[in-house]
Amino acid sequence: MSADSPGESPDGSPSEDEPTDAEALQNALRAEHAAVYGYGFIGAHCAGKDRERSYTCLDAHRTKRDTLRSELVRLSVDPAASKSAYALPDATDQDTLDTFATELEERTTHGYLRLAAANDVSLRDLAARSLQEATVRGLTWGAELVDLPGFPDGSGGSAPEDVAGD
Fold first, then answer.
1. Which residues make beta-bridge pairs with 93?
2. pLDDT tens-digit profile of 62-103?
3. Which runs of consecutive H residues, i.e. helices, occur in 45-85?
4. C-alpha 134: how far from its chain's center?
5. CA 14 distance to own-chain centroid
6. Helix (H) or strand (E) holding 132
7. CA-to-CA separations, 35 to 78, 86, 108, 137, in angstroms, rounded
8. Cα–Cα distance between 148 and 17 in angstroms, integer?
9. pLDDT of residue 17
10. Does domain 21-140 have CATH number 1.10.600.10?
11. Among 9, 30, 125, 126, which is most buried by a count of CB atoms within 10 Å?
């Protein structure tokens, strides 16, 4: 990759404002940890088709979490551990759970947006596919489609630093 590549300084090292591939993977992994935790909560508080949908999302996030962990191990980096707890909504009515699910998906899109700038082509591909999948899952929970999924305002602003949803 040339020194003019995104995320690199003129000497070829990562620039200060762009995460390394490992940092971007860790950020996406932290978002997946939070999503797995959140969907466990959602599934425990809904029924019928909503429960089935939440467990489908839970399985998808577990799979992504495991993929991200494998990629970090491939890079000889210790994967970030899951926290013992993440922020959850106070209410458990279906509207609140739907909103919470859309927020989980939005946070994962933020994590994958950062990974989309990875130097490794396979990681960029993983990020693009994962960002698309999270966007579609969010739509099934009632999220609005934005022009640029993954950006905080959907219009190309800078992505947030921390996406874990503490």
1. none
2. 999 999 999 999 999 999 999 999 999 999 999 999 999 999
3. 48-74
4. 8
5. 22
6. helix 121-140
7. 20, 9, 8, 12
8. 20
9. 62
10. no
11. 30
